[in-house]
Model the fold of this input.
Amino acid sequence: MSKPSILLVGAGGHARACVDVIEREGRFVIAGLVGTAAEVGTRIFGYSVIGSDLDLPALRGKHEYALVSVGQIKTPAPRIRLWDLLTQDGWQLPTIVSPFACVSPHGTLGAGTIVMHGAVLNAGAAVGRNCIINTRALVEHDAVIGDHCHIATAAAINGGVRIGTSSFVGSGTIVREGVTIGDNVVIGMGQRVLADCPTGMSIPGPKQVA
Done:
């Protein structure tokens, strides 16, 4: 039985990591990528950028599955826009899990979320739709992460943490157990979050050392 095809919507650096996870997972054949008009005709690891956003309706007639493969650091807006576009057109957005991740059968993952290599999702944790749980990130027991969030590389979300929609937790950041983080919060890399963060709050990462 042949594998279903999947289209990656986004052709930048995060898409390259998504390609590797999808290949390793082995459930789908990558049909190609959708990027900007300037990226059309280029290739990523042998896969062609076959169109731009404007081509998605026509591509829907050829493929059923898609994944938002645009990254998220400063703002979730591009990922949300693409998510809305794909869901409105009736694409199926599967959950993608690296075979090198550890996801508890007692945890839940929303549609369109990708769990990268080495990440851990523990018992009772719940992750929403269209999220990135990046390489070696930890989501501990009973933590709840809303839609359109990015938990970056090696971040640690401890037990019982609540994170609202569209928030970003930077690389190496540790969030203390039981903390609540609101919607649209941006937490820079390497932080120690010990208290609640209200909606819209921004915590910059450490200053660059020249």
